[in-house]
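Appendix B. One record, verbatim.
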Amino acid sequence: MPFKSIAIVFFLAISSICNAQDDFKVLPDLKVVSPGQIACPAKPFAKLSVDCWIGQRVAFIPRKPEHSYEYYDQSYDINGKRKVAVSLASGKVGKITNIEDNRPRKGLFLVTITMEDTGDNYYADGLLDYKDSFHLNNMAFIKDIDDAKKLYIGRKFWKKGEDWAEITNITISDDQFAPARFSYKTSSGTGTVDIGLCAPMTHAFNTYFAETDPETERKSQELAAEKELKKQMKALREKYKKYKWSKKVWNSIETEKVFIGMTKLQATLAWGEPESVNRTIGSWGEHEQWVYTLKSYLYFENGILKAIQN
């Protein structure tokens, strides 16, 4: 290699999106460690010293062969050293070995990455901001990839728009915004998708995968809604237990049934609130049509139930 020390500029750009949110909270009992927490996971990143980054292994995002004569970033020279060419670093791994707060701008650090294969030092400008997480341009933290492997390989999720899928492998992708390439297999074949371990929702895990298939999810939501409605109706009935209605009325309310002669309050306690009400008023009094789902209707005359259409 013609230059022993090569410089690259990257930014540890802080983003509140990366605050260990829903990107990897797919299973209730699982939580992926965010890039900002990997060195000292007991504390949030905002309260960590940058020294916590030292020792972390990082990989240069792989680039395609046609990019071999390009550079990883528009960088300025540091101490006369050149910026990193794709051909020299693509897919290679290094370790953060030193961080110096010797830059003129506040929060700007000189970061040293020592490559594992050659021992060369690549120098980068790292920007530390006031927020609680960060993104490392053109880099992937090896521990993030390893943690994702432990959490997801061998598990099955619903691949949206396809079928149930088993995660079979996780590698480093060529997309700096979605550096984890998830390989999966379904009953009809295999596929890959690039996931952002710390990314906007467009690259998040749950953009592509879900815990349940759409039909199961729909039924689950319906059951939850029904359970909540029953809970509300029970509370409402308890509220009106002070009324000394007949045993027939209370039995009908408890079994969610209506009968001719009920009042509007009694019908509401039995069937719940209607979807809509059509009301007309004339010389004969007030007429109401209560509309429920599944083409069910109740007809009231002056507040008394006169007809049921089910």
